[in-house]
Description:
By secondary structure, the protein is an all-beta fold. Helices cover 0% and strands 63% of the residues. It has no helices and nine strands. Strands 2, 3, 5, 6 and 8 form a five-stranded antiparallel β-sheet that branches. Strand 5 (54-60) and strand 6 (63-70) form a beta hairpin.
Amino acid sequence: MASTPKFIQGVFPFVGHGLGKSELLDAATAYTVPPGLTAQPLYFRGGNSSDELVVVTLTRDGESMRVFPMGAKASVNVPLRVVEDVDPDSVLELTVAAPDGCSGEVVVDFGMMIF
């Protein structure tokens, strides 16, 4: 079975509304698994330009799947060691939460395989 890499990459501005209020980073950070195919998230790299802790969350159909906290002016590189299949028609989204009033940009490099 052939597989195809899929990447969500970019620099996305955000304004925080509280660490408990995660919001979609951008329409470009949402991906619907095509009918008849399966996705496997493999890694997340991210950077945070703000002076506060921010949290990027990978959601599947609105439910948290993985959480990636990033410290102030810091970055993370997370190879996902526990890999799970994401079913066809599932919606994957990258959301961000930050302290109320905090603003900045998040650099995202998220990779998955589609097969």
